[in-house]
Amino acid sequence: MTAFTQSWTDTFSSAYADEPLANLSWFNASPGLELIKRVIDGTLKPGQRLIDLGSGPGVDAVFLSVQGLDVTGVDLSPDAVARAGRWAELAGADVEFIQGDVLDVPLPDSSADVVNDSFVFHNMRDDARSRYADEVHRLLKPGGLFLLNSFSDKMVPGTGPRRITSEDILSTFTADRFECVALYVYRNVPTRTKPDQLHWFGEFRAR
Ligand SMILES: C[S@@+](CC[C@H](N)C(=O)[O-])C[C@H]1O[C@@H](n2cnc3c(N)ncnc32)[C@H](O)[C@@H]1O
Q1: How do residues 121-150 score in pLDDT, each as one tens digit?
Q2: Is the CB of residue 80 below 6 angstroms from any atom belonging to ligand 1?
Q3: Which residues contact 145 (CB under 8 A, 6 or more apart)?
Q4: Residues 65-93: pLDDT tens digits?
Q5: Ligand 1 pocket residue status of 119, Cβ below 6 Å
Q6: Where are the domains of the chain?
Q7: Which of 12, 123, 129, 136 has most ligand 1 atoms within 8 Å of its beta carbon, as the pocket-test mutant?
Q8: Can you name the CATH fold of 6-19+30-206?
């Protein structure tokens, strides 16, 4: 089973091979705003083990490593892994980036205090969602935190990632295995093509 449709996988693969990062629609050079808040309030803290699924250019992963977390980024695209490594090198950050599939992550069970998903789940095929939730749950220690950032149905329709509903999220990360601590819409940094970036942020604890 593949996580994304082939056209999305091809899009990511060629984008990281050829394009300047500044041309990528999902790149704004800033770590996630809600992640920054969780560093400030102490939810994310030095020494925690964090796995960043679909880490792409590595901006969240490098930020969190600089904050003292022990971070591994996982991405299907070897070009993304290479670029993220260059970003980490520039920052002097000690982050591991590995090539891997979010549906079959080559990391041990119960190894993470935190799993981060920044703009990956929303594009997943419907029939891959439950396997993804299994994988997130497998990676987390009991009580570990899953952080989810995604496009929302509060945004205007249009090109780009799927807009997903709270029901899409809650029916995937279900109450038998995940306690939903928070799920809300926030306004993210605008882009040239999408000024109204109304995104979900979800915080779940693994049971
Ligand atoms: C929209 S980008 C988000 C990148 C990064 N998390 C961020 O917020 O900038 C989605 C990422 O998921 C990666 N991806 C797509 N399918 C994947 C899969 N099956 N396993 C791992 N990564 C995948 C893509 O290569 C891409 O880097």
Answers
A1: 999 999 999 999 999 999 999 999 999 999
A2: yes
A3: 43, 113, 114, 115, 203, 204, 205, 206
A4: 999 999 999 999 999 999 999 999 999 99
A5: yes
A6: 6-19+30-206
A7: 12
A8: Rossmann fold (3.40.50)
